[in-house]
Structures are given as C-alpha cells and as structure tokens.
Design goal:
Elements lengths: L12 E2 L40 H10 L4 E5 L1 H5 L12 H4 L5 H6 L1 H19 L5 H11 L3 E6 L5 H5 L4 E3 L2 E8 L5 E2 L1 H9 L14 E5 L8 H13 L2 E5 L5 E2 L3 H8 L3 E5 L12 E3 L3 H11 L6
Parallel strand pairs: 2-3, 2-8, 3-4, 8-10, 10-11
Antiparallel strand pairs: 1-9, 5-6, 5-7
C-alpha cells in the first residue's frame, strides 16, 4: 500500500457497538476475513522471535533489531502512574457522558458539564508522574530504537520522562485555548477562573469559548499530526502498541498500517484488542514490568 492511499478523514470515534461509531476511513475496516492467532513456530530472521523464548526475551530481541521503531501508547501506560482510564470502572466516562464537540460549541450547559469533568481530570493529572514504562520508552528513543512516540494520551507524561519526539494525536491537557482565535492559557489560570465562579470560561480577546487543547468526540482530528503518524507507521520496522484498547479511530489504524507495511507488531495490553490477530507478540502483563525486563535483557541479546 502506498502512502498516497492512506486517507485521513473523519473525527474521533470508536468501533461499532460503541455510542461513537461512525468514522469512515479509506484503508479498510481493521478486520481480517481470516482471523488468526499469532503463531510463533519458527525463528523469524527479521524479528528474532522463537517459540522457546520467554515473552520478555522475545520483546528484547525485537527491540534490539529496531532502527526506526514507533511506540503507540494509550491510557493503559498512564494507569500505572495512578491515572484512571477514562473508560474503566471509576473513570470519568463511567460517571459522566462525554460532551460531544458540536454540543460544546452550541450549548453553554454542555460547556459547564465539560469543565466540571475537566476540573476532576486536572486534579488527577497535576500530581501524576511518569512511571517506568514511560522511562523505558524514553531510553529506547535515546538508543535510536524508536523514532517517535505516537500517543493517544493527553497527560504529557512521555515528555516528562524525557521522550523528545512525541506526537499527541488527541492533543494535550496542558494547554487551554480559544476555539476561535487560538489564544492560549495554562490550565492553572483557567481553573482559577472556574473556582472564582466562571463555570464556562470565554476568551478575553474575542469572547468565544475556551477549551482544553484536546480532541473531543466529534471533533476533527489534526490532519498534520495524523499524516505524520501514518508516515512514521508506514516506515517503521517495529510497532509497540502499548496500553491501548485499539478501538478509538482513526488512531487505532496506526499499528495496523505499520504491520501492513512490514513492521513487527507487539501488543502489550492486559485486555484483548481488535488487532490481536495481526500481532507477532502479545504480552498481557504490567507495561512497566514488561518493558523494564526487556530493556534489562537487551545487553544479553546479540545482533
């Protein structure tokens, strides 16, 4: 598949069966007519996978061969820093219906609900620190094993851990901006306004609503960042899909595109994902533990 055939369109949604299904893309529907379970039968010359190896050793072998890998990360990596997955029991969306972008623009009541949820998120995120998973990913970038981190997360913990090339395809919660003129504030400044009684802050320059610089359901994805992410995926020799349910589109297409272009696909996630049938290696374990153990074994892996 050529890069010209990667069609970037639509907004953030989930697979059928979720209330947000509806995204259309031009690179297939992510399902295989002949689903298969990853079978590790023979040593693979490219990935180094062998059936007799432990998962950790296989992961170390795969990483050792990487020259232009990508890490694709979701909420699961940050749960190990104490941040609840939005969808998990106890997460924000288990208690509140997400505010759709069109509703946010149309309705002040919707914006009030949006900022009530944001207040809760900011309180959680303000104390969060990167964990060992974030730190190992940053180390792999410094070792030139990873070309980039493509993340669905909005918490900024990859940057705090030292990762340099981080593509935040769902935006960042560390900036608040005007939806019209783009003027920016820190979350601390806006939380102070809300605490003072301004339940749905507007821009002091143009009067339009302020919003966290994140992508809401129904909001257009940033085409420049998605194009960069798809390009990196199509050139990657490995893709580490870490802590993502791989159901939110169009982001979930990124590991699949990497695989379709020849990358070795590793999925590290506690729960099954729709792309498991494409994976060369699946690890159902603590992300930090799996990455740290593999990193420690890198020195024992011969090229």
């Amino acid at each position: 598949m050529s890069q010209d055939n990667l069609e970037i369109k639509g907004c953030m949604t989930e697979y059928a069966g979720s209330p947000f299904f509806g995204y259309s893309r031009g690179v297939g529907d992510g399902r295989d007519e002949n689903p298969r379970t990853p079978l590790l039968i023979q040593p693979d010359a490219k990935s180094g996978i062998m059936p007799s190896m432990s998962d950790d050793t296989q992961l170390a072998n795969i990483i050792n061969r990487a020259r232009r890998g990508i890490a694709f990360t979701g909420a699961g990596i940050s749960t190990e820093s104490g941040l609840a997955d939005f969808r998990s029991p106890g997460g924000v969306w288990s208690r509140n219906q997400p505010v759709m972008y069109d509703d946010f623009l149309r309705s002040r009541d919707a914006r009030v609900r949006y900022w009530e949820m944001r207040q809760e998120l900011y309180r959680e995120m303000s104390d969060a620190q990167p964990n060992v998973g974030h730190e190992v990913i940053a180390k792999l970038e410094r070792l030139n094993k990873l070309a980039a981190v493509i993340t669905q997360n909005i918490d900024g913990l990859h940057q705090d851990a030292g990762s340099q090339n981080v593509i935040e395809i769902h935006g960042t919660a560390r900036i608040v901006s005007c939806v019209h003129c783009g003027k920016e504030w820190t979350p601390v400044e806006i939380m102070a306004r809300i605490d003072a009684g301004d339940a749905a802050p507007d821009c002091d320059a143009c009067g339009h609503p302020l919003k966290s610089k994140t992508i809401s359901f129904g909001q257009a994805m940033p085409e420049d960042l998605m194009a960069e992410a798809f390009s990196l995926a199509s050139q990657a020799d490995i893709c580490l899909a870490i802590g993502s349910s791989l159901v939110v589109e169009p982001a979930a297409s990124i590991p699949r595109i990497a695989k379709e272009h020849g990358a070795t696909l590793v999925i590290i996630n506690r729960e099954p994902t729709p792309l498991d049938h494409l994976a060369d290696l699946i690890i159902r374990d603590s992300i930090g533990q799996a990455l740290q153990t593999a990193f420690e074994q890198l020195k024992n892996v011969t090229r």
